């Protein structure tokens, strides 16, 4: 069977272009995406709310105020939990399904929110952050896979990008909540505690949602899988999609039934896919995005705006820019492609980080602090404006579509773990590094990493826009085996046609 005639290939859509779906054409898929995307909202809220809450936690706990390390630990303990959650999330997804993994994440997140709100001291607060992080870690790798497996290939990028919009929307909401509770007794407890609300809402909604049709099919629950697919595709395309699933199932049957983490590194094509996916996740963090989101009020205060309320208000504008950029990304990712979007995003990120570095260098040596403070805020806004449409959604979208069915849960969990480990390293060290070498030098380091990220994307990340999962697999096989793969596939096609 050649790639052009493969069931489910984009050749079907070339023959019937009128059957291509648009983002809003199927309300069932869109509803599934939004409900699953509440995981992204939890992710975003958690990353955003701590930046404002930390200002008031320092006021309540003198030990936190006196220790940058304790501040970093309160922020980053959620990332430790997320690493645990993401690392175990791949196995949970493959063994029990995307739906049950999401429900488990909601329960853990809700428990963590309650612990944080009731924390009598910084150490119980840190425990609550650990629990919340575990829920976020499971959800962060589950939602993109769940959405991708139920999405038509022509709008898969935009639908997975909706999860990233929910992340940025959650960050924006967190700043609104932070502002709303600035004058309320128990400020930070309310800020952290209300995050249980969307988790409870998602838990209830997910009880009525289907399991991923691809997961059901591969677990031999074909009738349920086809029933879900029938709500997504018309009859002609449904038959085509089911044929593709049967072909994928047959291929998987010839492989080992159980995939272990080490197996990822034994297969050359899967190893290449994980290099691209894991590399994207690492560079997303090491270019500084969650440093900006976790510490944006602190950065604003470093730039000379010392009022807590003013710092939160400026940070709210930054978060609003982040959410707006994500909307742009939803449109662009399926129109211009993942790779071009990432490269253009990184170009702007590099320039923005250089502006930020220059602003803090100027503030250190110049006499006009207000000018350099304003320049730093402009640099922050530009950074978010360039980052959010590209390097925000692209790593999550690419990781939801580049792995073979057999490896999707495991590799998705591993790549999310890379993201959270990178996030932990950056957030745990930002304040300490800024104190040691200066804030300007710290942003200059981020700029250098962004240049490396640009080179990495240009060399290692393929374009997957509009491709089916089967077509994406062919990319890695060709990259792994080159001309020898083409020769072998021709021989196989010839023997099948005989």
From TrEMBL:
Keywords: Membrane, Transmembrane, Transmembrane helix, Transport. GO terms for biological process: myo-inositol transport; polyol transmembrane transport. Pfam families: Sugar_tr (PF00083). It is a multi-pass membrane protein. It is found in: Membrane. Residues 32-465 form the Major facilitator superfamily (MFS) profile domain. It comes from the Eukaryota. GO terms for cellular component: membrane. Belongs to the major facilitator superfamily. Sugar transporter (TC 2.A.1.1) family. This is Major facilitator superfamily (MFS) profile domain-containing protein. It comes from Acer negundo.
